Amino acid sequence: MPSQKKRPVTLSSADREFLERLTTTGVHPASMIRRARVLLALDTSVGVVDEKEVIAARLGVSGETLRLVAKRFAETGRDVEATIGRKQRDLPPVPSQITGEIEARLIALACSKPPEGRSRWSLRLLEKHVALTEGIPDLDHSTIGRVLKKRNFVLT
Of 5, 18, 64, 144, which is the most exposed, with the fewest CB atoms less than 10 Å away? Predict the structure, then answer.
């Protein structure tokens, strides 16, 4: 049982009580309850722990899940709540290219008179004109459509 030797899970009585209460009462996400049950099953403070395969079969998870929960418990400094909770994102999401100023200029362009030979603006035509306009990044026609839809603007 290499994972138990590398990363033994030892819970305090308060942590154990918290996990038992979490798994039996209230409404919690299934993934949180599953990780709490894994921690309870891997806890060495109550005695000898079963083999990894036995625990995995009993809980209905894979051996890899047991390993990952034990690893996360060790990485979080034995913090139970951080182990069973959602993992925080390492990188922030990609910021949107669309700012209020760009949105206003895009709507102003869509409100303007269409080019010669056209009766109205289309999303693809707006895309071509946005590429030629300075100060507005190149936007895909679907992005332009989302911006216009967000403001309830209809191309007529």
Answer: 5
119 DSSP 8-state letter: S
DSSP structure class, residue 97: S
Query: pLDDT for 74-120, tens place per residue?
Result: 999 999 999 999 887 878 788 888 999 999 999 999 999 999 999 99
How far is Cα 19 from Cα 22, in angstroms, rounded to an integer?
A: 5
Residue type, 67: R
Instruction: Give me 95's structure tokens.
Output: 């910021």
Summarize pLDDT for 28-57 with one digit per residue, the tens.
999 999 999 999 999 998 888 899 999 999
Tell me the whole-structure pTM to 2 decimals. Answer: 0.59
Q: What's the sign of the alpha-carbon dihedral 36, 37, 41, 47? A: positive
What's the maximum distance between 2 C-alpha atoms anywhere in the chain?
83
